């Protein structure tokens, strides 16, 4: 099915007699493999409202992310949460959609300073598992009563409902940026430097570490004079951590955003969320073939041997481990998303029972 209107989608879901597999642009094959009739949302496409002065954009869920990025770039604006392009990492093709981006809550390096995708959402329209059309939020940020569908749908991977339209805030593009690179630092010193930078008053918008290159990266963005001043001051903060250089290469952060060091390399890919201070212990315990740290060490990308259950190696370290890339067989045998504790699981089950009473939307994708 490839409905082109919200009403058609609602009719399709209401008439469904079995499980449905919800797909946007087909670029993010993440989660336990799902069986069911294919429902593609890419037919519902188009920007329906864009008010640059109000920093607000409304688009149908199937709108290509590239179309939205081009529209806002023409007004010197951007999606500040820096959504990752998963195609290189996952080896997929297709066209990323804004609905898929929201459904997976895709957020890049700038998340440490501006928040995740869900923090930029203003409103959503959706069809639930009973075929009901629901809406929540609006064109300005406000509190809502009852279920906060804006937050619930961000990161739900189509298990609570199918997005049909999203409204979100955009922000101006920074005039310039600079990246301080610390050279020849181990994981402990790198995480210490990233934490020092993030704890400083100099508004760091990116904090990453490449263990293979032994380089740590701290990004500063804004007006040219401000960036120059803050870069100089931040270098003083980092003076005790080792040799430094400064770069203005924006592609460096595109590579960190998309985990490009893993592209074309064999092995499973895990995404580990931990306290930044635990990052060195994760690297030591994991025994990974390759790694990349982002968000000051709070998120760690690991490439390991196929079929390996990394959670076993990381027992005793508090956090969450998500299997982002693996064969369908491995994703069917290992829990892709980190197992929920009993209390959270009860809440998740209750929400799914409320919004998808027949259990037909991406059944089992999140475990």
From TrEMBL:
Keywords attached to this entry: FAD, Flavoprotein, Oxidoreductase
Domain of life: Bacteria
Class of the enzyme per the UniProt entry, highest EC level: oxidoreductase
Keyword check for Metal-binding: no
Documented EC number(s): 1.-.-.-
A UniProt-annotated Pfam family: FAD_binding_4
Domain FAD-binding PCMH-type as annotated: residue spans: 1-173
Molecular function terms from GO: FAD binding; oxidoreductase activity
InterPro entries xref list: FAD-bd_PCMH, FAD-bd_PCMH-like_sf, FAD-bd_PCMH_sub2, FAD-linked_Oxase-like_C, Oxid_FAD_bind_N
NCBIfam families: PRK11282.1
Protein's recorded name: Putative FAD-linked oxidoreductase
